[in-house]
Amino acid sequence: MAGGALMAMAAVLALAAAAAVSASTGGGVQRVLSLERAFPVKEEVDLEVIKARDRARHARMLQSFSGGIVDFAVGGTSDPYAVGLYYTKVRMGSPPQEFNVQIDTGSDILWVTCSSCTDCPQNSGLGIPLNFFNAASSSSFSPITCSDSVCTSIVQSASAECSSGSNQCAYSFQYGDGSGTTGSYVSDVLYFDTVLGTSLIANSSAPIVFGCSTSLFGDLTKSDRAVDGIFGFGQHGLSVISQLSSRSITPKVFSHCLKGEGSGGGILVLGEILDPRIVYTPLVPSQAHYNLYLQSIAVNGQMLPIDQGLFTTSGNRGTIIDSGTTLAYLVEGAYDPLVAAITAAVSPSVRPTISKGNQCYLLSTSLSEVFPEVAFNFAGGASMVLRPIDYLVNMGFVEGATMWCVGFFKVPNQGTTILGDLVLKDKIFVYDLVHQRIGWADYDCSLSVNVSITTGKDEYVNAGQLSVSRSSSTREIFRTVHEYYSAPMLHLLMLWVLFL
After folding, report:
1. Where would I find the Peptidase A1 domain in this sequence (predicted)?
2. How far is CA 131 from CA 51, 64, 143, 187, in A?
């Protein structure tokens, strides 16, 4: 039987070779091509290396990176007295120009400052260089005009405006802190590293629409924490995650793990981080932000007497998670019971005090020894358990003791509860936009993570080691083959299997 399979396979290859020779012969002159092995004969090569090489070839051939993940380096910390934000690098234009942009899940659009920007900082207190996008030096740059279909769709959603005088698709963004930016939408090439498999990173690129800012106002004009722009990871169709996933370059899911201790940093991928401890809760549908169904808050396992209606999403009310916010904000009807419960739970050695209107505590021992755990309970049975370090901020030394202040700030009951970096740090967060859910798990963000590179999760990349898991299921193996191999190659492979 094996001999018959080999003969059949040889016949198929012979026919293919004959067709190739026939097609390459012209004018009576036979063209002969010399071939060399991709891998040395006597050198052992892991099967996964070969598979990864094939996937790269097929991605180039099919002009897509189906199932690939995009990995971004992360800088910054949640410490409000150091950096107070997280940022990453993006490269755009031809030749590439590099920019440091803040990671922001509370907005939608990627924008960077342009060379014509007024009131823009010239240097940054974060110790990073500030750059300005120079459209004139990019051969792949193109403006988005008022007649462009992209602009038409944005104008309908009130995210842009058009001036008949300039014929440019313009925007004006204002953030919750009163800062903002104005400019126009443009298109250019975004460069990124796509992880396709074992130790294989493809240098990839795709044209995207982004904002070219010509004016800043508010805190964005200050140099102390200045960056080159903001990388919005919202759900809008013009967010980078939406643009890339619509072309099957990345899955419509992204993940981050923001390191809170030490020098900060962390992990940001366009892909799904996998961890068995991750719990998921549904997103509130049809919202501009990542709104969740917060149901209750507990201190040391005891539910607080809070009206659940205060968390209901309606108008400006609700509960959102936002990586662009440094601290956390809680509506008054929940803030007061929470602070009262924390104060009642601490040991007598802790001295409560008020500093600049905030509830603080003076102590000389470890936080974990004297402060309780706080749990935010969401729909679907998902709880976000906060350690003391996740809701307290170190304010330095006072009267020979360390002063820790509650990192939650009170907002009116008609306002929005916002969970910022103080709460999000040291956790995996997965934003699954396909299934409209968000998941999280406690994690040491200095470690590598497993990231799914296929929708079926039969393969994953271990970021840092870039190892790919093997599936023992024949069905899973064929699912992988179907995703990565072109139709003619699949046909030959299936012929070979049928002959065995």
Report:
1. 86-441
2. 39, 30, 20, 18
Per-residue pLDDT, 492: 29
Neighbours of 8 (CB within 10 A): 15
Q: Is 104 a catalytic residue?
A: yes
Question: Of the candidates 149, 150, 172, 148, which has an alpha carbon nearest to the alpha carbon of residue 160?
Answer: 172
Collapsed DSSP state (helix, strand, coil) of residue 117:
strand
Catalytic residue flag (residue 432): no
CB 392 within 8 A of CB 367: yes
According to DSSP, the residues that pair with 90 across neighbouring strands are: 99
Handedness of CA 22, 25, 28, 31 (dihedral sign): negative
Report the amino acid identity of residue 67: G
For residue 48, the SS3 value is: helix
Q: What is the separation of C-alpha 140 from the centre of its chain, rounded to a whole number of angstroms?
A: 25
State the Cα–Cα distance between residues 387 and 384, nearest whole angstrom.
10
370-395 pLDDT, tens digit each: 999 999 999 999 999 999 999 999 99
CA-wise closest residue to 56 among 200, 182, 226: 200
Of the listed 108, 148, 228, 322, which one is catalytic? 322
For 7-51, what is each residue's pLDDT tens digit?
Answer: 444 443 444 444 444 444 444 444 444 444 444 545 555 555 554
